[in-house]
Specification:
With 298 residues, the chain is α+β, with helices and mostly antiparallel strands. The protein starts with a helix and ends in a 13-residue tail after the last strand. Strands 2-3-1-4 form a four-stranded antiparallel sheet, with helices on one face. It is elongated, with a radius of gyration of 24 Å. The chain has ten helices and four strands. A hairpin with a 6-residue loop joins strand 2 and strand 3 (251-260).
Length: 298
């Protein structure tokens, strides 16, 4: 019963964080990008193009829903039902939030297009990153990124960036009228690429930051107590290595622990509780593959 309750709470927390990520993402699109006729890529970018090409008749949220509905079947088949359910939730929630925000926001929050591009890039990247970390997605090109990432160790941010290059280029066709200055159109495309670059960087910053791991080397006279505490309380593996202090010549035991960066405070806490005099060092490791961490994909 305890395991079921913990799993339920974990799922609720994941859905809440996914919702928060979608809230940030959709607000950035409707408050900074769409009012300036800028396209930031992804299915949202395609929907924005459709919105303006249709004479602002087809709302962004509607076309976003239809396009993603066609993609979700692929996500369920390849990435599994758990991811599929979260993707379905993301589609409905994103479509709803886009429709709500577009009805409420009719003017850009800032007149400076460059600032809007940077701010929206940061917010969109943060929103997507939060969703990805919690097993969800803002759907669209994120589905493609997660499918590729399942089989290859390629950054999701880079995958999305490549796809977005083409979509943003298509924003050339959504000028206010056919006689608009081509220079102004090109400027809008450039702003779109600024959004794309900041977006990709922010996704990687959030995504890889959460997935980053640390290696701890712990020297303690009470190594058994420390090891037992880490295994029992944190459910992390511990390796015991025989070593010798060169200065004292004494035989010692060294504990090697690998854990997520987010678990650093817990590792230090249980170590100090078991042995206040323990000597601990930690190093950042760029890739950890195996049980409890990432899956090795070749």
């Amino acid at each position: 019963m305890k395991v079921t309750k913990e799993k339920l709470m974990s799922e609720i927390r994941a859905y809440l964080l996914i919702t928060f990520g979608l809230l940030i993402y959709t607000f950035a699109v409707t408050a900074f990008l769409a009012p300036h006729r800028m396209v930031g890529g992804g299915v949202t970018g395609i929907s924005t193009i459709i919105y303006f090409l249709s004479g602002e008749v087809i709302p962004i949220g509607y076309s976003y829903f239809v396009i993603n509905f066609l993609l979700v079947a692929i996500a369920i088949k390849i990435l599994g039902p758990r991811f599929g359910f979260k993707t379905i939730y993301a589609i409905f929630m994103s479509s709803f939030l886009l429709s709500v925000f577009q009805n409420l926001i009719h003017e850009p929050l800032l007149e400076d297009k460059f600032m809007c591009a940077v701010i929206s890039g940061i917010m969109c990247g943060a929103g997507i990153g939060i969703s990805l970390v919690n097993g969800g997605s803002t759907a669209g090109t994120d589905i493609v990124a997660m499918i590729i990432n399942k089989y290859r160790n390629i950054s999701p941010g880079k995958i999305i960036m490549y796809i977005d290059v083409f979509i943003i280029g298509c924003s050339y066709f959504i000028g206010e009228d056919t006689a608009i200055d081509p220079t102004a159109k090109i400027a809008t495309i450039i702003y779109g690429y600024v959004v794309m670059g900041v977006n990709s960087y922010t996704i990687d910053l959030v995504f890889t930051g959460q997935m980053q791991s640390e290696q701890y080397l712990i020297f303690s006279q009470k190594y058994e107590d420390v090891a037992n505490s880490i295994i029992r309380d944190l459910r992390r593996g511990v390796t015991v290595v025989d070593c010798q202090g060169w200065y004292t010549g004494e035989a010692r035991k060294m504990l090697i622990v690998v854990a997520r960066k987010s678990e650093m405070q817990n590792i230090m806490r249980v170590t100090k509780m078991a042995d206040p005099d323990a000597f601990l060092t930690m190093n950042t490791v760029m890739g950890v593959y195996g049980r409890g961490f990432d899956t090795l994909k070749i």
